[in-house]
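User: Fold this; tokens only.

Assistant: Input:
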Amino acid sequence: MIQFIVILLMAAILYMVQRYIYMKFWARDLEVDIHFEGKEIFEGERGRLVETITNSKRLPLPMIKCKFQTSRNLMFDNSTVNQNTDNYYRNDVFTLGGRERITRTIAFTAAKRGLYYINSAELVSTDLFFTLQTVLMHKLYDEIYVLPRPYNTNEFRKSLQWINGEIKTQCHLIEDPFEFRGIREYQPYDNMRSINWKATAKTGELRVNMRDFTSQKVVRIFLNVEDLGVIKRTEACEAAIKVVAGLVKSFTAEDMEFAFYSNGVDILSKQPIRIKRSRGKAHEEEIYRALARIDLSAETRDMNELFGNTITHGDGSMCDYHISVNSYENYQRLLESYDSMHMSFLWLYVTSATELMGISGKLLTRVMPIRSWSRSVNPEIDLDKQVG
């Protein structure tokens, strides 16, 4: 009997000692890192999240849970999502020995454009007997951009061919110093730097180099996502954003200079978007990311109020693309003002209607309907092929 009591007493002491040790030391030298592989992907593409738990002390951790949350628009494999919340909650369980590191990679599918992030993780541990529960909040931050998939159809590509022709014939022509066309006699208005001294010495008279001309291509893109209807047309607005992405991709491939304006509210700055004209891959990426950050749930302002002055102060070297889900009267009046400015523009009207109703006769030759589609349940389906 005494031996039994001694055993119980020793067991109780052992239990209390280990409980004290785990309460005091379990979080020491314990680190967690959660980050996305890559900083941006397109809608429908696969991404990976890397989760690393490091226990740098000798004390083993028989069970540790790592809990974190992110957006449900990142659809992780073998997981269920609560449709009543915008967040996805994950709870991963690890067993860590002393001085051990475990890395787990989790695949997901990007279902919708946006800026998604992880800003904290909760670590929950226990003792050897699983009777103790201790919690530690760990601050961290990582983000990933899910970029809108560029819109691409045969009809859309034809419109791009049209706009390229418009720009090349109507914009200003500038002399290209790298395009040699021939040699001619010197004229009083010629720049001394254009003199060809070898030809001058050979003929005994001043001769100048003739240069070819190149088009200075400038395009402005205006995205209008203002939705005045009682039933919000989120699907159409998402389609309009994809159309802009398609334009940006095309203009970058053509090495064209372009600017981007939208009354869509940036989820970070809380302001409408204004990106000055530029060209190249860096400019393309800047606009893609701006498109990803548009918050369609935020209140938008009228395009005339925001950009009316910008539009009316354009010149003949510019050609404008307007992408809109609306055709309200005030917006049509803004587009009709192009007649007095003698500027080229094309209106890409994203609509689910089969016929254009209520469009001003002055605009019918400058409007191109883009049929919006319903989002598929399966994010891996090629949405571009669903456009009718």
